[in-house]
User: Fold this.
Amino acid sequence: MNTTPSPRGLPRRSIAAAAAIALPAFWIGARAQPAAPRRPTPAQTEGPFYPVALPADSDADLLRNGALNYATTQPAWVDGTVTDLDGRPLRGALVEIWQCDEAGHYHHPGDGDRADRAFQGFGRVAVDAEGRYRFRTIRPVPYTGRTPHIHVKVRLASRELLTTQLYVEGAPGNARDGLWRSLPEEARAALTVPFERAPDGWKASFPIVVRA
Assistant:
């Protein structure tokens, strides 16, 4: 058995054993380091068409307004999560969306209140225990001067945590839209998501990160 002393006077076998014990502790310590904080979802302007008064029907299904059903060729599901900067679900948060109908009109007097009455146009939903939300709506369409988008707002109790806009990846009008062009590249990536074909229409996922 080789017990030749090391330069510090310890047998080599003792040094090897100590290293074997220390190595797992090192890796456990590395894994225990907190993850880097996430970047908050970029904010954007609310725009002129947030509802003057919230509609009587303001649930998560924008394709049904009261007893009316909106006949659309582009139904879509938009879902995601709302988390804080540490990745924790933001319990109690409310997510709101609003957008124009397929003819490019909003339920708003500033737009002549010309939107189809069957299209709810605005929806609000509370996130679940895991921070998830989901809306049934339409794939956003362009209107004069704007590329397709959906307005998004996040509230927690009386606080408004975020107002932003969700864009469609690959939409031809993006590069001509002043608000989209004004975004830094990283912010564009955060707010521009693919709408993909699904058996029941289109589907898009939009994760939201906020300072809570």
User: Anything to note?
Assistant: Confidence is low (pLDDT under 50) at residues 18-23. Residues 96 and 124 are 4 Å apart (CA to CA). The longest strand covers residues 159-168. The two ends are 62 Å apart (CA to CA).
